[in-house]
Amino acid sequence: MRQISKIYTALVMLFLYAPIIVMIVFSFNSSNSLAVMDGFSLGWYKELFRSEEVLNALSNTLVLAVCSAVIATVIGTAAAVGIDRMRSRRVKNVVLGVSNIPMMNPDIVTGISMALLFAFVMTVLGKETILGFWTVLIAHVTFNIPYVILSVLPRIRQMDKHLSEAAMDLGCTKLQSFFKVELPNLTPGIFSGFIMAFTLSLDDFIISYFTAEEFQTLPIVIYGMTKRTVTPDMYALSTLIFGTVLVLLVLSNVMQSRADKQRNGKPQAKIRRIKTRKEEQKA
Length: 283
Prior knowledge:
Elements: H1 2-26, H2 43-48, H3 52-84, H4 89-104, H5 107-124, H6 133-158, H7 162-169, H8 174-203, H9 206-211, H10 218-226, H11 233-262, H12 265-282
């Protein structure tokens, strides 16, 4: 039975990662063949950095992903803290259900509805509808916030509720207690939410396609290339993106494991330091 489960797991992993491995291998191909490996070469990586269209799209995508991830992380963290502190369980469940709608909603529905919303707002304001960076940013923040909430909420529920009370008993205000005691405990969840928001924004095509006109992101540019022929420099670009995301996920898991090990000792040490300072001030 164990051998069957191992074989099954190996087949699943092979099915999932075989296309990525093939893409990585052929990104180092010396020719543009899609079936024959003629030799090892970094030529397609050099060709990638010579393409002005791809580099501009990559720059737009990275700026958009970072901005949307930062904004969504701040709003999502605040929303998660607010949802956790709601007293009414019924209201809390309703708010959670509403916040989960953008995740379950098909991307094409979200993209079309966001485009119509922007057009309606511009019409009401009496201005010409201009879809660009700001409209795409608003759309990306909208669908990223629920993922941040789902990443931060479990950390809030795992945190000892008496830590903030102990900090306030030792002289901290509510704001100081949040930043000195609660926020450090939430950091792994916040970082995980940021990574997820960044990755989703980096990968999005459908919503960006409906909410951007002149602003070109990398998925939109690659989609335009599929109408012609996808050159191997796109394999090189996809390999670099895959490697970057893989490194970020590894860092996220490392931070999560370290936080789990230090979760019990670190907050108490901070409270002891606060108590020592208060005793020194009294002395």
